[in-house]
Each structure stands twice: as C-alpha cells, then as structure tokens.
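Lab notebook page, bench 4
Experiment: in silico fold of construct C2
Operator: M.H.
Input chain length: 559 residues
Purpose: comparison with the prior construct
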Amino acid sequence: MHLSRLRTDSYRLDCRAKIDCKLMLRHGFGMLKVDTKTIQKMSTEYDVAIIGAGISGLCSAKILQEKYGLNVVVLEARDRVGGRTLTVKDSSFGYCDLGGSYIGSTQIKVKQLVEDLSLELYKINDKGYDVHYFLGKRQLNKGTVPLGSSLLGILDVNNFWIHIDKMSKQVPLDKPWLAAKADEWDKLTVKEYIHKKCWTRYGRSAASGFVQGILTSEPHEVSLLFFLWYLHSGGGIIRNWEISDGGAQEFKIVGGSQQISNRLANRIGSDKVHLGSDVTHIYQQDSGSVLITCGYGVQYKAKKVISTVPPALLNRIRFNPPLPGLKLQAYQRMPVGSIIKTVTFYDKTFWRQKDLSGMFTCDCVPVEEAYDDTKPDGTHPAIMGFVLADSARDVCKLTKDERKKLVCEQYAEMYGCQEALQPVNYIEKNWMEDEYAGGCYVGVFPPGILTKYGKVLRERFENVHFAGTITASHWAGYMEGAVESAERVSLEVAHSLGKINEEEFKSLISQTTTPGFPFLQFSFTQKYLMPSVPGLLGLSVLGVGTIALIVVSIYHKKS
C-alpha cells in the first residue's frame, strides 16, 4: 500500500461546536480531505499509540505489529513521515538529504534495516586531501594526524584527542552517572576542560571545532561528562570524526535517508500512520487505558503509549497525571543543538580535480564542516556544508541569498578555486525553525544535569514509554541510535502487555544494544612519540639542564 494513501480513518472530533465543518490535513504527497463523518468513526482501542513517525516511532510500530501481533497507530504532527530525516527532490538535482543521512560501518542495526527495506548504501568520497583551516592558515591533510600552525599546536591537539579518548572509555554507556569521576566531570563544561588541557590557540580552536561538529553546540554549553559519554556511544573520537573505513560518516543511502521512514510506513499500513496529528494531551485513565488528544480535538485510546518526541519538546504535551518532577525538570534542561544544513550544487567536481576530498574543517563562518555530496554515479556535483552552533544562530538572521553568497565565498577560499563562486543551485534547511524538532542533532546536557536527571530519561511513566535516538546506549544522535531505542522500547511494551515473560524480557533486552566495537586506534607515533606541550617543555628543560651539567663538568675537569 503506497504512502500517498495515508488515511485518517478512526479519527474522532470530540468538541461541542457544530460538526458540519471539513478538516483539511495536508501531507507531503498531496491534500487529504477528512470530513466529520470520517472523524466520528473512532471506536477502536489500540494496543499501542506511538507519537512520532520518525525512525524510532516507525521501527517500534513495525516490531510490535509484525513480531507481537499488536494493533498499533502512529501519530505524527508533521505533514510527512521521517522526523529529523528529510529528503527533498527536484529535477535540477535529483534528490538531497537535508536531515540525518550518514551511516557508519559499525552501525549494524540501521544497516540491517536498510537491507531489509531493499535500500542501497554508497560510500562517501574520501579520495584526496582534506582541508584544515584554523587561525587563518590553510593546510592539506590525509589521515588522522592533526595539523597545526606550529609544532606546539600539533602536539597540543594530539594530546587533547588522546586524553579525551581515554577518558570517554571510563564512562558507562548505560549509566554514565556511575562513572568514577562523574560528579567532577559533570560540573565542568567542555570549554573549561579545553582551556585546562590545551596550551595553544590552535589546540583550543581545533578542540572547540570538534565539539561544535558532533554536538552542534558551543563547548561552554555542554557538560564534559555528557561529551565523554557521547564520544563513547559512538566508538571514540576517531569513529565520530572519520569518513573513511570505520567512521560515522562512511555511507549514505542511494535515493535519500527519508526512504527508510517512507517504506516503514508503507509496510505498517497506510491506515496506521496518521499525519497532522499533533498530540496535545495524554490522559492516563483509572481504567488503565490512555486517552490521547490531538489538535482539533481528535482523540485516540490505547493501552500503551510510546513517545519518541525530543525531550525538549515534551513539555508542550499536557500529562494527566502530571509527569514526575525529575522527568519534567529534565526535559526543561536539555536544549537542542543549532544547525543550518546547506547543499551547494556545481556543474563539475572542481575540488576533485585539485586532488581534494571535498571535506574541510575550519574555525571561520559560516560553514565549519563540509563534505562531498556528489551522487554516487558522479551526477549533480555538490558540497554539503554544516553551519553550526553560534554560527547558525548568527547567520540565520540573514536572507537565504546572503547565506548562499557567504558559503560560496568561503568554499572559494577553502578549496582555492574561484569556480566555487558559480553554483548552479543552492538549498538549505534551518532546523532551528522546525517546530517539531527544535534544532538538531540532539538535545544536550549542560553541566550538572546528567548526574541528577540522566537516569529518568528512559524511565516509563505508568503506561507511557519513551524512545528516541538520545535514549540509546550506542550511536546516540544517529539513525542507529533511533533503531536501538525502538528495539528496547518495543520489548518494554511487549513485556508489559504480557507478550513475553520476565525471563524472555531480561534475555532479549540485553541484546538490544549495538555490540561494542573497539575504538579506532591512534598511530604509534601519535600515542608514544608525540609528547604534550608541557611534556615537550619538560624534555627541553631536562635537555638544557643536561647539556649545562655536561658543560660545567667539562669546565671543572679542565680547571
């Protein structure tokens, strides 16, 4: 059944006003007209109502329906499925992902899902040199060895990377608040740690850029403990950064990542996915049922509810009884990162002709990170640029044409080629403007929050369960994390509805987390032959002192 036939059967309008009106609900595949006769047909009590038709919500629906035979309904506020994945199509550029799109080789759950849905992966271009531009200096690089404007800069950032990698391994993935130094690390911002550990301007600039790149937030906004947990969740600093073998940005989906949600919705059934259903109230009745009210007064009844709503947006929903105090406060303290995702199209891949991969990182605005986004068959040459954190907050005040001009001028400088000033097309998505996302990639924990509130994030509230990529243990923030969270919450619901016993539940729940993969290792040179800045200074002092002693000794012997 095709997604364009999504219907709103079983809707009911529960209001005292006249009901001779007609409700128009629009979705991405046309206009859907629902009259009051359709709305009044609501009579089914679902086993499970799922809020959110992103990957977490639709995967949960698929598992509960196909594996446990439960009657499900998915309620989506938007006029489309996909959540924070968004694929736009146009004859001038084919298709383009403006939301989550990258898949790493160790993200086995989403890779299996892609295969099950008969989708195809392609490898991101990583041939050629990457560009690093910090403190006004442009440098070319291959591999993970850091560059710097000086020897001290190189040693500084290398030392930061290695120490952060080691520290992240000390943070438990399921319970980060139990780390031995959890209280100490949760009181620090990442910026404070960077200034404590890095001695050079380059080291501080490069470290800050890395934080902005993976969390779309400024280092002073993020708890060090949360940052370390997030790194561990993604398999360490190199996996989080790399586009080559084993990295998080290794693959994309031919045709776009929103196809995952489109095909899941078709598989679940068009009558089970209801668009334009903005949940406003959740009333847990004494009878054990849950009454869910959407905009326009439309209501649903279910035994269980799964929410995949981003934590920062859950306060828009009124709960009766109210959410527990810690849970309510936790959701008030998880701001979402800021990003504008841009794609600039050209008539040819001029950067490849200069032996550049298309990837660059820099400390200037607007784009702080970019990748080659040319189609796998070589058509529609493009650069995908990420405008992150404070940069996104600053340039969002400009017009689209003004941002386009800044982006192209920056590309001309990064790639050393004036052809970057002549794009054939430019599109962008400001996720800060998306009222049902509130930003991207995920909500972050400021200092002092994870140790006090982290444990309530996944906890169910009576008959309401919670999922979403930020609740995952592995690859939180990625599509992989969304799939993991769906598997975990589906087991919780199936167990609570008596579909599996306690012994089965304990056995299966331990299998939901993605198997851990070893961190990608730094080279022998980086680990053992590159001292920190203080270490180098200490060696220098020791060397000078040794030479001085030798000179003095020789002098005394001659005397």
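Observations: The longest helix spans residues 533-558. Residues 188 and 245 are 33 Å apart (CA to CA).
Next step: discuss at group meeting.
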